[in-house]
Structures are given as structure tokens and as C-alpha cells.
Predict the 3D structure of the following.
Amino acid sequence: MLGRILIVCLAAGIVALPAGGAGLVLILPGVTYERQVQYTRHGPVVVHVMTAPRPGGQYELRPLLSNNAIPGVERLTAMQRRTPANTTLAGISGDESVAGTFFQSGVLQSLPVAGRTTIAIDAQGILRIERVSVFATWAGAGQRRPGLLLNQQPGPNGASLYTPAFGPTTPAGVETVEAVIAGMPPVTPNSDLAGRVVEISPGSGKRIPPDGAVLVARGSAAGRLAAEAPLGATVTARFLTSSLPAGVVHAVGGGPTLVRGGRPVFRSGEQFSVNELALRQARGAIGQRADGRILFVAVDGGQPGYSTGLTNYELAQTMVRLGAATAAGTTVGRATTMASEGKLLNRPQFGERAVSDALVISYTAPPAPK
């Protein structure tokens, strides 16, 4: 049913008058969607709001990875269609490339970006907005070597561990030595991950074993890897995390922090450019109300006469107005997408773009009575 909705936000120059919008629509059991229109002195702004129950029971707040692998991109609508028959998904897009933490079901698949927020979900359904750092090392027959990366290209004299989350093979590289390690467990933080070297040689494109990993080194690190991880040797990797709360099940990179303690955050001190913060454009965010309900918000932008978009602080104010006690950004720019059950809900500039990850609420229907 069509309604008349208007939003007031005097600090952002928004005027309180009746406006066109869409009333609440039930899109999944317990999950509602609403299209709101804000009339501002800069032009109209269309805000898409999805509200979901507190995670728990039949509801899970979790990340999706495009094509189930770190490289590459996929449309959010396509990601949602890859789901079991008894499960339905609704949510918002993440970045156009994996930029920061990706932590799924207790397994670390991508490292956080220094100076940016990690959006974490714990086992009690609480949204945790944290700055997470990781100190990672590897060791063979010699001393423990710092600076280990995860599923990303190593630096000129660095090393990176590639796990099955990256895909079937390691990427093309220059002047690398690669050690294939069998029996190395998935990357769980703050534990020793040991495996046996079953192949080591120069060159790239090694097959990543499903029950192991490949340690890739360049430059001076390549010489150390060749000397300290011969065939048959045990190699141990360790990823020590700080500020990742106990009990976290899933996490993705995001930011900036928008709401803390029910108040909008003007300066989060995170590593984002002026353009990312100050331009009025499309934006995505996730938040949690004090009662535990989850807010997904997608703001259309870059379309004068339809929706100009918001600045980062205007988005923070919008999240507070919607009742968020805590919130963080998920996307900046034209990749901002909201979808439910594989159907697009917002109106991105130039249409839906492929992204690397997403955050969704997953609803699993109870089994049919026998």
C-alpha cells in the first residue's frame, strides 16, 4: 500500500512536509521493507530501509562472498539466489573488492585494513563495530617470520598464505617461491596452524589443497622460505588478532563508524578520503537498535531529481533517526545495492553492479510437519 512519508532532520537541512514513499512491506517472515523520501535543500533523497529481527533461532546475520571465493565479483541478486530451498536471504551489498576483514563461521579469510572498521556479529546476535588488527607470522625450520598476509599478493619481500577461500590455485606472481602445505587447518585466529610441505618450487599458479594451503614468498622472503621449509618440513602459521570480541561468528570490513551509543559520529578518525566522506552520493549502512533488531539502509544517489544521496554524516544522522544504537557504513558509491530473495529493491545509478561481498539476514523456514 502506498503511503505518504516524510522525514525531518533540521541539522541536515531536511524539511518536514508530506512526501511520496512506500509503506511498510513484509518481504520475509518478520522482515519489513520501506522506501522513504527525504526532501532536502539539495534535492530529494531516497532511503531504502529494511528491518529484521534480532539474529538468533531461524534468523542469522551473515556475510556472503561473491562466487564463494575471495577474487572476483558477483551481483548481490545472484549471490542471494545461491541458497538452499528452505532458506531466504535479504540484505545489502558490501565493497566492489574485498577491502578488509572477511571472517565467516569462525574462519578468517581476509585481513582487516589498518585504520578501518570491522563489522562483527557475535553468537548472541549482537552487532559489534570494532577496529581489529592482526599480527601474523609463519615459521619453518628457522625463527618465526612476521608480516604474513592472507589471500592477497605479498609485497616485494613478503609472504602470503593462500587458503581454499581464495580459489583453486594461487595467482600469477613474479619471482616467487611457493610451498604447498598439506593438512593445515582453516585459519582460526590466535592458534597455531601447522601442516607439512608436500611441494616447494619457484613459480606461481600452484593448486591449493582443499585440506591445506600454499605459502607464497617473494624477494628475500622467497630465499628464506626455500631454506626453512624444505620438502617434508612442518610449517606453522599464526594469526593473532586484537579487538576482535570473544564469541564473534562472522565479520566483514566496513566503515566508517556511523553511530556509537545512539549518537551520530562526525569524525571516526578512519582512513577514508574526503570524497568518500563529504560528497553526497549513494551509501549503504547496517545498524542495530537497542532491542536487537537489525537495520539495513541503502541510499540511492547520483540521480538529480530522483535522489542526490547523502554525505557520511547525514547518513549517520539518518541511522540515528531510524533508531540505531550502533551502526557502520558498508558501501560508498554506485555499487550500493539492497535486495531480497534475488530481487533488487533500490535503484542504483546505472543499474546493479557486481560486488565482492554482502551482509544479509538469512531466514530458515521450520521443517514441514510430518
Remarks:
- Confidence is low (pLDDT under 50) at residues 1-19.
- The CA atoms of residues 78 and 342 lie 6 Å apart.
- The helical segments are 76-81, 219-228, 274-278, 312-321.
